[in-house]
Amino acid sequence: MSLLELRGVRGGYGPVTVLHDLALEIQEGEVAVILGANGAGKTTTLRAICGMLDKVEGSVLFDGSDITKRSTQAIARAGIAHVPQGRGTFGDLSVDDNLRLGAISRKDGGVASDLERWYEAFPRLAERRTQAAGSMSGGEQQMLAIARALMSRPRLLLLDEPSLGLAPLITKDLFERLGKINEAEGLTMLVVEQNASLALAIADRGYVLETGNIVATGDAASLAADEDVRKAYLGF
Amino acid sequence: MMIFAATSGAQLFFDQVMNGVGTGVIYASVALSLVLIYRTTGLLNFAQGELALFSTFITYWFAHEQGLPIVAALLASVAVSFVGGALIERVLIRPVEGASSPLNVVIVTLGLFLAVNALASLIFIKPGQEALQMPRIFPTGDLALGIRTSTVGFAAVLVIECLLLYLLLQKTKLGLALRAVASNPESAKLVGINTGTMLMVGWALAAPIGAVAGSLAATRQSGFDASLMQQVLVYAFAAAALGGFDSPLGAVVGGLIVGIADSLTIQYVDALDGIELVVPFVLILVVLLVRPNGLFGRTIVERV
Q1: B190, A135: Cβ pair inside 8 Å?
Q2: Residue B231 in this model has a pLDDT that exceeds 80
Q3: What dihedral angle (degrees, nearest 10) is formed by the CA atoms of B232, B238, B244, B250?
Q4: Predicted confidence band of residue B14 (pLDDT cuts 50, 70, 90)
Q5: How far is A214 from chain B (nearest CA, A)?
Q6: pLDDT band for position B2 (50/70/90)?
Q7: Which of A175, B29, B85, B161 has the most other CB atoms within 10 Å of its CB?
Q8: Interchain pair A91, B300: CB under 8 A
Q9: What value does the mean pLDDT of chain B take?
Q10: What pTM did the predictor assign?
Q11: B161 to chain A, minimum CA–CA distance in Å?
Q12: How far apart are CA A97 and CA B191, in angstroms?
């Protein structure tokens, strides 16, 4: 059984329909990437999964249960962590508060040890524990947003354009870290990304989205080799 | 004013400052409740003063009609206000919260202002009654150095309120969730916080602070009626703007500054006799021109 499955999903904002009959599937433990041009509906797809659209038709199944009609907070508590575009950090709260908020819905006692663990993995955040999140650089904030998501011990991590606004070297480092986290934790990820080559490098599976429809799908290697995909999204 | 004739100039000045502290503490309390709602919901609640008035009547009812000692009556009123604040958010505010314009909620609070005031008069003031008398909480007379016991008592109450609020917001999980909703509602949902519940908690917390402020204000007067909080609300808004609408500390300092400035003006500036109200506003205008976020308001620094 797949961890996440979208069946015939239609949705958008107010009168505008962005997604048309969208279907996709992600297996436990894999990294899936959604490629597509601006306005293809990549962000809307993630928002549909998280219950952040006014109206969604079709069904979103997470671990076998239908979450289509659930509230965003209920979906978060069910184990889907979403790092939105623009990172969504709590800008005027400290780094420490941000990370604690990631774990605020957890009831187990492992929060303090997880906090130390992610501070170890992201030493820059440890240095800036008491600093307001909004005063850090874009790359640091992206690290914080990801660390905050990991603090919830999610079963599925959604990342919306993690490279946006970051320098190329920082983006590369970020994707290497994501790849490592996937390997070490077996954490399932769905990544929306403009930077197709970096994303495909850590992905198992890819989807190409065009005006709200999946137009191509396949394992990451074959998508990267596909001539149409290369021309459109890899630029060579 | 004749009683001051015999006192020295310095003593007079000191007395007026202390007098200002006494009223300032009340402005600070109401400002604190305004700031609390603003920080959790992004809303200016114009009905805050009238809600405090209603709570004041409830205090009076417990003390006068039920015969409770005044402190017990005040605590009972605080409890009722907590539940009442939550109910008002649930029943009246929530239905318009999702509206396309944030102004809709503001209009509802203005409606609430009028409705609560009228309702309070209707329920609590018997025909022919002009002013109600609130039992004193603190003994009359001076504590030391000509400082009134009630002024010290009021200040102590405010300090306790601030301390409790600080502990709640900074040291508890609930406080963290409240701050998260104020900072970024969408991200708060994404970490699993029920933002609707937090907005309700914000209202539930603000109402008891107003209840204390109103009840204290009533004890300062020989008698009070339904107009008790109207001028107080104006001064409290001034205090909150002065201190910065997102800063609880600012509300307290702003309240004290407004109270003291008002008291000194009444004493020393004869030209403004009867229109002392302009003073706090001139003060605010100057501060806001120099520091648009108020004295303690944060200038949001957001790097991208």
Answers
A1: no
A2: yes
A3: -50
A4: confident
A5: 26
A6: very low
A7: B29
A8: yes
A9: 86
A10: 0.86
A11: 23
A12: 12
Sheet holding A31-36, edge to edge: A80-83, A156-160, A188-192, A31-36, A205-210, A213-219
- Find the closest chain B residue to A82 by CA distance: B190
| Best CA proximity match to B15, nearest among B223, B222, B268 | B268
Q: Residue A144: in which H helix or E strand, if any? A: helix A138-151
Q: Is B91 on the interface with A (CB under 8 A)?
A: no
Interface predicted TM-score (ipTM): 0.90
Domains of chain A as residue ranges with CATH: 4-79+155-234 (3.40.50.300), 90-153 (no CATH)
Pair B84, B17: CB distance under 8 Å: no
Q: Which amino acid is at B282?
A: V
Tens digit of each residue's pLDDT (9 = 90 or more) over B31-56: 999 998 888 877 888 999 999 999 99
Do A104 and B194 make contact, defined as CB atoms within 8 angstroms?
Answer: no
Domain residue extents for chain B:
2-290
Residue B189: list chain A partners with CB under 8 A.
52, 71-73, 76
Distance in Å, alpha carbon of B301 to nearest chain A alpha carbon: 6
- Inter-chain residue contact A105 with B180, CB threshold 8 Å: no
Taking 50 as the pLDDT cut, the residues of chain A under it are none
The DSSP letter of residue B270 is G
Of B191, B195, B302, the CB nearest to A152: B191
**Is residue B108 exposed (0-12), middle (13-18) or buried (19+ Cβ within 10 Å)?**
buried
| Residue B87, C-beta contacts closer than 8 angstroms, at least 6 positions apart | none
Between CA A126 and CA B146 the distance in angstroms is: 52
